[in-house]
Design goal:
The chain is an alpha/beta fold. 49% of the residues lie in helices and 15% in strands. Helix 2 links the parallel strand 1 and strand 2.
Length: 377
């Protein structure tokens, strides 16, 4: 009986172990199935995410970057960028903002490996120099015939976009009535000592041109007369500011009441940014720059540069920029009655300037000014 009881106990124990083992295997199998299912779902999600990233990357790759070197006011850039990218979704435009002279030096330095595609904004003198150094691509745009000969390069290397009168700028909160200078010579008056702020000259195409025109106005064949004029201006100059932003800031803070600057940027600051700025069209005339554009020689995105070129000369864009950004179009085919009222009313008095002489002598004259006149009077 005892042996039989022991046998029964052994059988029950064996059956218990078998049951435990069976349940354990079942749970392990369920866990394995669950893990496999989760792994499958995870892989599916990874594949979906990967497909999304791939699609995103593909979309980015489909947009090619158009690199634009420009001296344009930030308000103009903010206006043009979304319009161009909407019209040309295949391109993403990137602006590098700097002075016209800085652009020339950069394009010159990158000649063997161009990093920019399009040069937007600079003096005629700067573009003439760039043309002579073979830095610009030959391209005849669709609108070429709408330009007077004096506003474009005969070899189709650059075209003038706008006309920039260089004028006397003043703070309207500081100067009124007879206190406002009427001509260039008035700036040399002792009453304006430490009232004049000048944007740093050498990096600025605008300032280099104004100063060169002042030298040429005195006597282009004998620059000493012009140098003497600049010495007197330097004596009245309180500070040479780093860039246009600092010029506007210091003028607004009334750290100075006068400057020499271009009409378009003064109007933008006055009308768009509500700055207390006014301008004087000098009685003896204002140098009127042809502010130009060009494609960089060897541009990596040549087709994108061409598309941008054509876009900014679109008739609607030209008129919008004239109305809202105070640009004077260089094209001769725009009827006067279509131009904004401010241009029709503009009393534009042009100074007679030999631009060929300016292009040839500017570097020599400005180097002399920087080394012998600046901050020495």
């Amino acid at each position: 009986m005892k042996k039989m009881w022991n046998k029964i106990v052994m059988i029950l124990f064996a059956m218990t172990l078998l049951a435990i083992f069976t349940v354990g295997c079942s749970k392990k199998e369920d866990k394995t199935k669950s893990t496999d299912a989760n792994s499958t779902q995870s892989n599916e999600k990874k594949e979906e995410a990967g497909a999304g990233e791939e699609a995103k990357e593909k979309t980015t790759k489909e947009k090619t970057i158009v690199t634009v070197y420009t001296g344009r006011d930030s308000a103009v850039l903010e206006y043009i960028e979304p319009l161009f990218e909407e019209a040309h979704p295949e391109y993403d435009v990137e602006f590098l903002n700097m002075g016209a002279q800085e652009i020339l030096e950069r394009v010159r330095g990158e000649k063997e490996n161009p990093q920019g595609d399009f040069w937007w904004g600079g003096t005629q003198a700067a573009f003439e120099i760039a043309s002579s150094e073979d830095l610009l691509e030959v391209y005849r745009p669709s609108f070429a015939d709408s330009f007077p000969e004096e506003y474009k390069d005969a070899g189709d290397r650059w075209y003038g976009e706008i006309l920039l009168p260089e004028v006397i700028m003043y703070n309207t909160d500081m100067l009124t009535g007879d206190d406002i200078p009427k001509d260039w010579e008035d700036l040399l008056d002792a009453r304006y000592k430490d009232q004049i702020l000048i944007r740093n000259v050498l990096p600025s195409g605008t300032m280099r041109t104004i100063y060169s025109c002042m030298i040429a106005k005195e006597d282009a064949s004998n620059p000493e007369k012009g140098y003497e004029w600049l010495r007197k201006l330097d004596a009245n100059t309180k500070e040479y500011t780093q860039d246009p932003t600092n010029l506007y800031l210091k003028m607004t803070r009334q750290e100075g009441s006068l400057s020499l600057w271009n009409l378009q940027d003064i109007m933008i600051q006055k009308m768009t940014n509500n700055q207390p700025f006014g301008y004087v069209m000098p009685e003896s005339g204002a140098p009127i720059l042809v502010d130009a554009v060009a494609i960089v020689k060897g541009a990596k995105n040549l087709e994108g540069a061409k598309a941008f070129y054509e876009f900014i000369f679109n008739d609607k864009i030209r008129l919008d920029l004239a109305e809202n950004m105070f640009q004077i179009p260089a094209q001769a085919n725009i009827p006067k009655e279509q131009l904004p009222q401010w241009i029709q009313d503009l009393d534009l008095r042009a100074m007679e300037v030999n631009w060929k002489v300016i292009a040839e002598k500017e570097m020599e004259w400005m180097t002399y000014w920087d080394e012998n006149i600046k901050d020495k009077n």
